[in-house]
Design a protein that fits this description.
Length: 304
């Protein structure tokens, strides 16, 4: 269990369990049924919730080896007063594999064409989680005049992710279903959540469902420094949200804050207490309050 020195994690504030009469698959299907599904010319699968044209659209990008469902506990709140667009990133979920080099640059290039197709000329707010944070920064660089605000959530690519691969258990090649499930459960608790005790049936279902469909090596980008380098060239409002117990941050929040403010002097770094890497799932209520607060502060893109 990863905790800052002198601090013990609470087990009382974990994810709210789904009703006992609703299975994880049913919960997923119910949320998806409320969406409008679109497939772009590139084949990318996008889903849209809400239909509020009075406010700028909100685009959410999920993390590596994931899908739109990384945001399953945030969609209803965030779409209550604005239109929320979420793709399955190219090479992940239902979307086709992007062209070589099949990394964050290729994924961002596909999405840049997608938003031209789905949101022609519209300014939008952009939020990226983990690997999706790297992609979001590169997408923002391709559309600097259209991204009103960029919010990074537990983003990789800052040169901080060193060592977590050693705690993960290999699962490819495991033929025994019980052994494979045990490896997935270990990895979910070690990497995504603050403690294994927070793993619920829905989290386990989403994690295993999306992991086996991944065709992009997001870990390679996340453990390097592409986001750190990209931030230097962005000229737009930028903020960050991290879980206090996020193992990929290694507690280096002063360094993260400095990197964000190096790109945007007024950048805010919000810390979600008692949450790990997947903070928007583990502490959904706190996240659903913090993100709209950040997005409410509007400044024209390109201004200091």
């Amino acid at each position: 269990m990863r905790v800052p020195p002198g601090r013990k994690p609470s087990k009382k504030a974990g994810p709210t369990a789904s009703p006992i009469d609703v299975t994880p698959a049913q919960s997923l299907a119910q949320t998806e049924a409320r969406a409008q599904r679109s497939v772009t010319a590139a084949g990318t699968v996008w889903r849209r919730w809400g239909d509020n044209n009075s406010r700028a659209p909100l685009v959410l990008l999920h993390g590596g080896a994931g899908s739109w469902a990384h945001w399953i506990r945030n969609i209803d709140v965030l779409s209550s007063d604005r239109t929320v667009w979420i793709p399955d990133l190219p090479g992940l979920g239902e979307s086709p594999t992007p062209p070589a080099p099949r990394d964050h640059t290729a994924v961002a290039a596909v999405l840049a064409r997608d938003v031209d197709e789905l949101l022609p000329g519209a300014a939008f707010d952009l939020v990226g989680f983990s690997f999706g944070g790297i992609v979001a920064a590169f997408l923002a660089g391709l559309h600097p005049q259209r991204v009103r605000r960029l919010v990074l959530v537990g983003a990789g690519g800052l040169g901080l992710r060193k060592g977590e691969a050693k705690i993960l258990k290999p699962w490819l090649g495991l033929k025994d279903p019980a052994e494979r499930e045990a490896a997935h459960r270990h990895n979910l608790g070690a990497l995504m959540l603050s403690t294994p005790e927070r793993i619920d049936p829905l989290a386990m279902h989403l994690y295993t469902r999306d992991l086996v469909r991944a065709r992009v090596n997001s870990a390679k980008s996340s453990r390097a420094e592409p986001l750190k380098q990209r931030l230097e060239s962005l000229r737009m409002p930028i903020d960050g949200i991290w879980g206090r117990l996020d193992i990929t941050a290694h507690g280096k929040f002063d360094e993260i804050r400095a990197l964000l403010r190096g790109a945007y002097p007024d950048a805010q770094l919000k810390i979600i207490e008692d949450a790990g890497h997947w903070a928007q799932y583990e502490q959904a209520a706190a996240f659903n309050a913090v993100l709209p607060e950040l997005l409410a502060v509007y400044r024209m893109p390109g201004t200091p």
